[in-house]
Amino acid sequence: MTTPFGSYELTRYPIDPRDRLRAWDAADEYLLRHLDAGTGERGPVDLAGAGQVTVIGDRWGALTTALAAHHPTQITDSSLTRAATEANLDRAGIGTSKSTVTLLTTQDAAPARIDVLLVRVPKSLALLEDQLYRLAPHVHAGTVVVGTGMVKEIHTSTLRLFEKILGPTKTSLAEKKARLIFCTPGNPGATRPESAGPWPVTYTVDEDGGSGAGLTVVNHAGIFCADRLDVGTRFFLQNIPTNTDGARVVDLGCGNGVVGAAVAVADPDAAVVFTDESYQAVASARATYEANVPPGRRTAEFHVGDGVAMLEPGSVDLVLNNPPFHSHQATSDATALRMFAQSRKVLRTGGELWVVANRHMGYHTHLRRLFGNSEVVASEPKFVVLRAIKREARERSVRPM
What we know:
Blueprint: E1 2-3, E2 6-7, H1 26-37, E3 53-56, H2 62-66, E4 73-76, H3 79-91, E5 102-105, E6 116-120, H4 125-135, E7 144-150, H5 156-165, E8 169-171, E9 178-183, E10 201-204, E11 216-219, H6 231-237, E12 248-252, H7 258-266, E13 271-276, H8 279-292, E14 301-304, E15 316-321, E16 326-327, E17 330-331, H9 334-346, E18 347-358, H10 363-371, E19 375-379, E20 383-389
Parallel strand pairs: 3-4, 3-6, 4-5, 6-7, 12-13, 12-15, 13-14, 15-18
Antiparallel strand pairs: 1-2, 7-9, 8-9, 10-11, 16-17, 18-20, 19-20
Helix pairs in contact: 4-5, 7-8, 9-10
């Protein structure tokens, strides 16, 4: 990536030589050009004398890496974004010491004062809303706020959020299908307390929710289908095993944690592990678990990171997975296939991977290639629940309910 601030060799994370998707796009380039030279009536931004620079929504660390000389603070919901940023900074010979770049998560306290706020518009409008509400008390009338995104990512609702929470908002002309957002802080929202936003959202699973029926679900901003049970998860909950018999069970890509919570409620002896690459998701899963599981039962584990890479090989009996098939705006099965491969590694011999997915993804083929077997547990016109068993020695099958 060549910018006014230098040229950088950037990569997405996890690093995959076969991945042809770039770690930046035209929106990142447009914002960096604007900061250096200005756009239309808006002049360049004097970053050297601006004060505290905060970057949110930076997908793979492209903005943070390019602006490292100005000691930015990156706030991200993605542990993979954080890992990519660290790798890209190291590759550029910069590092992440406190004297260069500060890396925070969406669950951390925001900087006390923000003088320049740079927003890479996220896919989730809810996450953007939550972040703007959280950051509003920390901006001031002189804060420079510039957003960026591809034209297809910036909608009227996006601009209304900036206007509602921070202040008057305008957009730039489009360049290479990218657009900038200019916001001038000044609305009452800039002094609202952090609790002013609507998140998290709580709802109760209805009686058609299978083993999740009656559970209280807590969703922090950015979690898929925040105010109701999505159809894929509903179908999964209607078919997951409940007689786990004290097994170590992983809710992989846990989201709000309703699947793992259902297992914990059905089997008080199960050792449930919640993992997701999203800090918001794991915070939601923890809240969902605590809302449904009485004190005193076996303690659950909560991990933010790359799938189940943090778990020991052969340490798991059952993995339950509703894999994503998007990477930001790109449709991809790369994340799902990585999850499947990781699951096989951490499963003990005879352990099982259960997957719910859109039928058209054809995951049964990949599971047969990886595990040597794949069984259809349940199906409907749109979704299918698949089971694969790690066969290397003796088996201990977990039966469907």
